[in-house]
Automatic annotation (TrEMBL):
<dbReference type="InterPro" id="IPR013783">
    <property type="entry name" value="Ig-like_fold"/>
</dbReference>
<dbReference type="GO" id="GO:0005886">
    <property type="term" value="C:plasma membrane"/>
</dbReference>
<dbReference type="InterPro" id="IPR050958">
    <property type="entry name" value="Cell_Adh-Cytoskel_Orgn"/>
</dbReference>
<dbReference type="InterPro" id="IPR036179">
    <property type="entry name" value="Ig-like_dom_sf"/>
</dbReference>
<dbReference type="GO" id="GO:0008046">
    <property type="term" value="F:axon guidance receptor activity"/>
</dbReference>
<dbReference type="GO" id="GO:0030424">
    <property type="term" value="C:axon"/>
</dbReference>
<keyword id="KW-0732">Signal</keyword>
<dbReference type="GO" id="GO:0043025">
    <property type="term" value="C:neuronal cell body"/>
</dbReference>
<dbReference type="InterPro" id="IPR003599">
    <property type="entry name" value="Ig_sub"/>
</dbReference>
<feature type="domain" description="Immunoglobulin">
    <location>
        <begin position="33"/>
        <end position="149"/>
    </location>
</feature>
<keyword id="KW-1015">Disulfide bond</keyword>
<protein>
    <recommendedName>
        <fullName>Immunoglobulin domain-containing protein</fullName>
    </recommendedName>
</protein>
<dbReference type="GO" id="GO:0007156">
    <property type="term" value="P:homophilic cell adhesion via plasma membrane adhesion molecules"/>
</dbReference>
<feature type="signal peptide">
    <location>
        <begin position="1"/>
        <end position="24"/>
    </location>
</feature>
<dbReference type="GO" id="GO:0050808">
    <property type="term" value="P:synapse organization"/>
</dbReference>
<feature type="domain" description="Immunoglobulin">
    <location>
        <begin position="158"/>
        <end position="273"/>
    </location>
</feature>
């Protein structure tokens, strides 16, 4: 009986210690989403927060550490000798964040802030809670991709557009751009069916951004009569829709610089119904 009682007490004690150890572990309590979209010229905030029981014992003297892409581009760290104040690592912090003015700082305990973001600021940023012991690979780390946009959609259609056969389909897209001539490609926006390999048309910068039908536009939209056009800045119009017009249509704000996957894109499924 005594042996069983002792075994039970021991099991409870082990369980209590495990739970207590788990609760006390250094960890992030708040992290940004995997992607952070910010308009050019605005402020990016990577909202990190963390829990640590005894920061003076558990943290390295330079922790947390914030970085760009990887540890070879450490932006800065919390300095234990300055009451964990954020210090910029001028030897590795990207120069664009320091000159001509310093644009990077930390709010609260771990929120990284970049003001007046530029296209060059796009990329992956991270925060690592560097501990006083252990392997770096096991230390709490969080990353988020910053995507800086110079243009954005101000209106997009619903995900699905239902139109009766023979009627007109209108994909009502609208966008904002500060300077279309310096930020847009000469063929932008671009409208497509399913993918850019079936581009319907584009706005031609050399003709006042007039809509031009591309050679890859599906033949059904061009013959025997042209049934596709653009109204206002970006609203795609298809007249006298047929059942074969059903499918996914998209609008891409094609920028002068940056990666295609980060450019503003909106897609809508057209569903043509019988009368």
């Amino acid at each position: 009986m005594t042996r069983g009682l002792h075994a039970g007490m021991y099991s409870c004690l082990v369980l209590f210690l495990l739970v207590k150890s788990s609760d006390a572990a250094v960890r992030f309590t708040k992290q940004p989403g995997s992607k952070l979209y910010v308009l050019k010229g605005h402020t990016a905030k990577f909202t990190w927060d963390y829990h640590v029981d005894n920061i003076n014992i558990e943290f390295d003297s330079q922790s947390p550490r914030w970085y760009y892409h990887n540890d070879s581009y450490v932006i800065g760290y919390g300095d234990a000798f300055l009451n964990w104040k954020f210090i910029i690592d001028t030897s590795t912090c990207p120069a664009r964040l320091l000159t001509p003015t310093i644009r990077v700082s930390v709010e609260g305990k771990a929120t990284l802030v970049i003001t007046n973001v530029t296209l060059a600021d796009s990329g992956t940023y991270g925060c690592r809670l560097v501990l006083s012991s252990g392997l770096p690979i096991s230390m709490p780390t969080s990353q988020a991709q910053l995507i800086v946009e110079v243009a954005r959609f101000t209106n997009v259609p619903a995900n699905k557009l239902y139109v009766v056969k023979g009627e007109t389909a209108k994909f009502t897209w609208e966008y904002h751009v500060d300077n279309i001539n310096t930020e847009f490609d000469s063929r932008s926006p671009r409208w497509y069916f399913h993918s850019l390999s079936s581009m319907i048309g584009y706005a031609d910068a050399f003709d006042g951004r007039k809509f031009r039908i591309d050679r890859t536009c599906p033949a059904r939209l061009r013959t025997p009569t042209v049934r596709v056009s653009v109204e206002d800045k970006a609203t795609l119009v298809i007249k006298n829709v047929t059942m074969v017009d059903s499918g996914t249509y998209g609008c891409l704000l094609f920028l002068l610089s940056g990666y295609l996957h980060s450019m503003p894109t909106s897609e809508v499924e057209l569903i043509v119904t019988g009368k």
